TrEMBL record:
<dbReference type="GO" id="GO:0016491">
    <property type="term" value="F:oxidoreductase activity"/>
</dbReference>
<feature type="region of interest" description="Disordered">
    <location>
        <begin position="1"/>
        <end position="22"/>
    </location>
</feature>
<protein>
    <submittedName>
        <fullName>Proline dehydrogenase</fullName>
    </submittedName>
</protein>
<feature type="region of interest" description="Disordered">
    <location>
        <begin position="85"/>
        <end position="108"/>
    </location>
</feature>
<dbReference type="InterPro" id="IPR036010">
    <property type="entry name" value="2Fe-2S_ferredoxin-like_sf"/>
</dbReference>
<dbReference type="GO" id="GO:0051536">
    <property type="term" value="F:iron-sulfur cluster binding"/>
</dbReference>
<dbReference type="InterPro" id="IPR042204">
    <property type="entry name" value="2Fe-2S-bd_N"/>
</dbReference>
<keyword id="KW-0560">Oxidoreductase</keyword>
<dbReference type="Pfam" id="PF13510">
    <property type="entry name" value="Fer2_4"/>
</dbReference>
Amino acid sequence: MSPRLVPAGSDPAGRRDRPLTITVDGDPYTGVAGQTLAGVLLAAGRTSWRQAPSGAPRGVFCGIGVCFDCLVTVNDERDVRACRRRARDGDAVTTQSRATGERDGQRP
Ligand code: FES
């Protein structure tokens, strides 16, 4: 199975996409309505967006809202599970990290 999005034009179900754009740490990512934030990132080829306390990269682990490995800040709301939150056009996502006390990209 691939995390890549099947283009609507080649989808045999005849789906119509409503495009959206989110930003992650200021970088734009495009997706379609109905995708989760994690889905938008995975479809763009990004597999990690935060760090564990050890510094190890984290992204989607369970994909069902149980492990909290995918946490991000969305429109200033911290600790949002990217695998559970549907992306909305204009969402401003900020990555989080637990590595060495770092929060939202800022060192203490
Ligand atoms: S990947 Fe496990 S909670 Fe999101």
